Amino acid sequence: MKTRHFFWRLLLYRPGLYLLNLLAWSLIHMAPLLPGLLTKAFFDHLEGTYEFPYGVWAIAVLLIGAALARIALIFGGFMTDVHFRFRIATLIRRNMLAHVLKEPGARAIPCSPGEAISNFRDDVDQAEEATSWSVDTLGLIGFVIVASWILISIDLQLTVLVFVPLILVVTAAQIATARIQKYRAASRESTAKVTGAISEMFANVQAIQVAGAEKRVVDRFVRLSENRRQSMVKDKLLTEALSSVFTNSVNLGTGLILVLASYKMRNGEFTVGDLSLFVYYLTFVTQLISNVGNFMTYYKQMGVSFKRMVSMLQGAPATLLTAANYIGIGRTKTKHQPERRRAGAPDGEQSLTEERAIGGAPQVEETESSLNPKPPMIYAPPLQQLEARGLTYRYPETGRGIENVSLNLTRGSFTVVTGMIGSGKTTLVRTLLGLLPAEAGDIRWNGERIDNPADFFIPPQSAYTAQIPRLYSDKLRNNILLGIEEKPGSLDRALYAAVMEEDIKHLQDGLETMVGPRGVKLSGGQAQRTAAARMLVRDAELYVFDDLSSALDVETERKLWERLFRERRGATCLVVSHRRAALNHADHIIVLNGGVIEAEGTAEELLRSSESFRQLWYGEETGT
Ligand SMILES: Nc1ncnc2c1ncn2[C@@H]1O[C@H](COP(=O)(O)OP(=O)(O)OP(=O)(O)O)[C@@H](O)[C@H]1O
Predict the structure, then answer these.
(1) Which residues, listed in sequence order, are joined to residue 624 by a DSSP beta bridge?
(2) Do 545 and 551 form a contact (C-beta atoms < 8 A)?
(3) Which of 48, 131, 251, 405 is 20 to 30 A (C-alpha) from 564?
């Protein structure tokens, strides 16, 4: 999709509102035609070349009336403009956000959070500005057409002199816009880098301090800011230079008209009223010129912003940005039929993410919301067997990941994925759970294919604790519940299973303790176990733990597995670990190396057959 198609689709999003806005601003910009004619009548009346039937005072009254009418029109114009702008901006932001939320969790945005914020904020503003300025430009063009007709009927030669600067300026601006686009892209990019650096610095204060890297980080920030300063200065300088070209060429045109008019007036071909009309209209012609210039600049800048917004979609069609979705403002929606068919599902093949679940009868619960359409909850039948065949995912940046990995989990089993650092353990569980988009492979729940693992692998099917816990600046209780309803005893059971009961006693406000941004008030182990409790408070068929060992001592980890077995008999566990506490419990162990399965079996078998496994097993003793 090209920029012009994007622009056009934005205008057509709410065509009625856009036309109303266009009408309002056309009237606002064309309204000065009347005072111009009244001023001419006033001077001609005084000069005696024309007799106004109701006298000079009537002209004054009409002038005041015209001014008041224009004020009222401007008020109406602001209302329509605000409504239109707001809807456009909300549409794009909503569509981008909806797409980000649909992307596999681990690759939701293709850039740093700071850059993403800049896309959501500045780039959307740019699109809003361009659409909004288009109505002013069209309104002023309307004014110029009518004004030209009036002026030509008075004096063709002078009228041409009014428009020559206009043509020159528009041509100059056209030539300069390519460069504006380049400078604008550079300034946007450098702004995004500065925003990204700020967000990274705030997120990593502790890491920066312990590494003694304050000076280097600040130096880098200064470098980025300096780059930004330079690119912003270039951008602003060119924009302002163009703007001054617009204004001054029109001033020159005014001078020419005055000189020419004085000759014509001396010859009696031009009245004072004609002169006042020319000068009066010229002010608005000036406005059109700078308006066209502004619009062209905004339009070009929107082209840059459009590309950046498309990059947020990570390969999805650009039309998504302007897809006319319900944006949840103003009206309530009563009926919602969400689209549940997954891309990639071969025709005729049943899948668990569609409206049919195993067992014949549909087991999908429709949720209906008055504001936000939610996907239906999926209740799959209890897990008997989960199979993954040929799972492959490579990170585009490094080409590393996993290749052709298969696994088979039966109900109540405890499977451990182990391997050296960087062998692909996290990638495997993320790909299985749909947090990374599998390039190849097939996942089946009790033999039924799962087309969209990201929608499927959530409670009550599965729950997951990531290697790095993500906590919010809120109470500990809310961090664990994350919005679900607390059932009697459920929180206590989860805390006990996550071996957190002692920690809660020692925390100042127990479960009501505010954990601070990203959980900074908790120890690493507490944060990790909070994440485990968050997982365990959700009843699930399959529990996936990604490497708890970094935050748990051996004894705590042993307790955690024991409690989990006792409390949740029948639950199936997939655990990433290289700790004996987990390996000892395992029914089946998968050893990854370089993204592929190197060996698999029980601990006993692997101790005999796999050198890598022996290294991991004995490495714990030697601490290597
Ligand atoms: N976001 C990423 N972008 C690019 N490459 C990545 C990314 N994350 C991981 N990799 C690469 O993919 C490979 C597998 O990484 P992964 O995190 O799955 O390993 P792991 O076995 O879980 O490691 P660890 O034991 O350190 O957690 C590694 O070589 C790593 O360099």
Answers:
(1) none
(2) no
(3) 405
Residue 510: φ, ψ to 5°: 55, -130
Q: List, by residue range, all CATH 3.40.50.300 domains of the chain.
A: 385-622
Distance of CA 399 from the midpoint of ligand 1 (Å): 10
CA–centroid distance, residue 423 to ligand 1 (Å): 7
Nearest CA to ligand 1 atom 31: 422
Q: What's 527-565 look like in SS3?
A: HHHHHHHHHHCCCCCEEEEECCCCCCCHHHHHHHHHHHH
Q: Comparing C-alpha atoms, which of 435, 400, 438 is closest to residue 108?
A: 435
Q: In what order do the strands lie in the sheet with 596-601?
A: 462-465, 542-546, 572-576, 414-419, 588-593, 596-601
The length of the chain, given as a count of residues: 624
Greater pLDDT, 366 or 86: 86
User: How does pLDDT run across 252-288, given as a tens digit for each residue?
Assistant: 777 877 888 888 888 888 888 998 898 888 778 777 7
Q: What number does the ligand 1 atom closest to the CA of 430 have?
A: 18
Ligand 1 contact via 401 beta carbon (within 6 Å): yes
**pLDDT 10s digits, 558-572:** 888 888 877 766 789
SS3 content of the chain, % helix, strand, coil (to 5): 60, 10, 30
- What's the topology of domain 3-322? ABC transporter transmembrane region fold (1.20.1560)
Q: What is the 3-state secondary structure (H, E, C) of 320-375?
A: HHHCCCCCCCCCCCCCCCCCCCCCCCCCCCCECCCCCCCCCCCCEECCCCCCCCCC
Query: Rounded distance, CA 346 to CA 432, Å?
Result: 20
Q: What is the ipTM of this complex?
A: 0.96
Q: What is the token pair recorded at 388?
A: 């993954």
pLDDT tier at 363, thresholds 50, 70, 90: very low
Tokens encoding 118: 């800049």
**Entry pTM:** 0.67
The CATH number that domain 385-622 falls under is 3.40.50.300
CA-CA distance, 387 to 442, in Å (whole number)?
8
Give span(s): CATH 1.20.1560.10, the chain: 3-322
Q: Is 376 in the pocket of ligand 1 (CB under 6 A)?
A: no
Place of tokens 């029914």: 587
Give the tens place of pLDDT for each residue, 530-559.
988 998 888 888 999 998 766 678 888 888
